[in-house]
Every structure is written in C-alpha cells, then in structure tokens.
Amino acid sequence: MLNCETFEKRPILSKYKEGDNFNHRNTFSISRIARKLHFVPKFEPDAVIGQKGVLCKGLIASKSGGIPTRESRFMEKKRAGHKEAFKSGYVAIAGAPNAGKSTLLNRMLGFKISITSRKPQTTRNRILGVVHRASSQLVFMDTPGIHRAKSALNIRIVDAALSTMGDADIILLVGDLANSDPESESILIKNMEKIKKPVILALNKTDAVSKSVIPGEINRWSGAYNFEAIIPVSAKSGERIEELLCVMEKLLPEGPPFYPDDMLTDLPERFIAAEMIRERVFRLTGQEIPYATAVTIESFEEKKRKGVVKIDAIIHIERDSQKGIIIGKNGSKLKQIGEEARKEIEKLIGKRVFLQLFVKVDKDWSKDDITLKKFGY
Questions:
Q1: Do residues 197 and 293 both lie within one domain?
Q2: Which of 23-27, 159-163, 301-305 has the lowest mean pLDDT?
Q3: Is the dihedral of CA 39, 43, 47, 53 positive or negative?
Q4: How far apart are CA 252 and CA 74, in angstroms?
Q5: What order of strands is seen across the sheet that includes strand 87-95?
Q6: Which of 57, 101, 195, 352 has the lowest CB atom count within 10 Å?
C-alpha cells in the first residue's frame, strides 16, 4: 500500500477584497497572476491575490525588487517545517482522441477546467492544471488527442500536443481500454521514443470493460514500450487515481513549486467561458457541426452594482447551411446552448451571468491560417 497524502480541492479563482486598492479590470484574469507571480508592496494591479482575497504578504521579495522566485517560496516552505524534500514538475497528458484525458485531468484537480464530450477531438488547446499536495506540486498539461491529422486545424492541434510532450518532465499516456486506436497509439509510441522522457501509462475506463480484459491490455502495452508504471484507472469513478498521483509524484524532480498554493490554472476566465460554450455545441449538435465551430468572447464585463457578469460571445461556423442547425427552430437550439453554458460559467465564477450568443459564418475558417491564428490556434 502506497502511503501518500491526499491532494486538496482548491478554488479556481482568487478574489479581490473589498476596499483593497486593485485595478478591477484584472478581476477576471488569472493568467497574468499565474505567469508573473508579482508581489508589489504598494498594492499595484498585478499583486498576487491569495485565497479569500488576502494579499500574499508572506512572500519573500527577490533582490530584483519585489518579485518572489520559485526558490524563495521553496525556502519559505522549508523553514515552515517540511521534512521531506519538496518536488515539482510538469506532466504532459497525452493520448489518442477520446481516451478520457480531460476527464482524468478534471478528476485529479477536483474541479472542471477542461471540457469533455463523447465526441473525439474535443480539446484543441493546451490546458494547464495544478495539483497541490503536501510535499509536491504537479503541473498538468492536458493536450489534444494525437492522431494522423489532415486539415490545417488538426495539424496545428497535433503539433502543439507533440511540442507539449517534449517540454514536460513526465509524460502521462492515457490508453483507452474500451476503444483502442492502433494508428494513434503507434504515432504516440514513436514520438515517446524520440523524446526519451519517463512515461507512465494510465489505462482508462476500467468502469466500461470487464476485469478480464485488463491483463491482456497490460501485456499488449508492455510489449510496445518500456513504461515506468502501468496503472488501470477510471477517470469517471476515481478508481486508483490516488495511486496514479503517488507514482507520478515519486518521479518528479526535487524543487520548489511553480505556482502559489491557491492557483489551479493559468487560464483566463474568458478562455474557459468560451470553452464551456464550445462544449455545449459539441454535446448538443451532431454531424460535422462541432468540428466546424469556434467560439470567441467579444466582451466580458462585470456590472458592479447588479453583481452580474455580462458576456457577449460569437459562435463561428464555416457555412450558411450550418447556421440554421446551430440556431434551431425559432432559436430553440441556440437558446439551449446558451442556457446550459451559462449555468456552467456561473459555477466557474460564482456570480450570475448574462450571456448573449451570436452566430457568424466565417467561410472555411479551419483551413485559413490567418483566421486560425485569430481564433487562437
């Protein structure tokens, strides 16, 4: 039995405390805080905000003038009484499309930041999530499903996923027990042989197959690559997830944490809001519609007096014929997408949301390099 500490579930957002001298334009942008980790004694806009809106006054200022380094936080934790050497590192989550990578990330975080659906290729961007444990910090990078890409969009997506694998300290490969994908698996194995990083295999969806299937799958994967460990898991039920975290923790290099204790992701709320809308499109439409859809946030504004966040978003599609499917009869489908997305966004930010959706045709946007860059791909 592995003796490991259970990770804590932490809030995704840090709150401003009423009365503090902050620039409220930054209230809904956590990416800047996560990337720069600024601590400014004069309470400038980019000061680090901790849990419950309290300024992180305990941070050690660096010699360069107030920016705490990874090492300064490491020494602070060490002085606080940590007996074990602290470990931290980046873990790339890789796998074939629809293997359950995003569901696994959400399960390990204890919070939903990565969208999911039963359709393959739901994830298009690198999604970062941070798991804080007593003696370690695991920074996960959820990547899009790796497959033999043909379109301009999918080529960009796969290239980004492979690049992320090369940047990580550890690779967490997610295999699908219920639906194997030999072609994608072959691509993954070849790239892992080139990268030469420690690889752990999580055989996902134990809840969807007979227990008798698992030993054969372990043998099949063992013959394909020399994994550090192979652990059958269920991202859906949580089976053996703690064991998986413990094994990854042991492989991490020693070092101080990269992110503050209350930081769960480096993604801005605007991005996550757009993803929640795109998730609803994936789940509520069929055929080619989800793959011809992109979402951009035109405005994201908090109405202070009313306590409401007003969001205007555009659903981009490729052809006029798709517009009617997204809107639906008398606007019913668009209304359903908006209502369900609004509820998910309200869970995220903890405030009431007024969401307006618009549909725009950008002909063949997924094949145009300029438009792909504009949409963030």
A1: no
A2: 23-27
A3: positive
A4: 15
A5: 127-133, 136-142, 87-95, 170-176, 199-204, 229-232
A6: 57
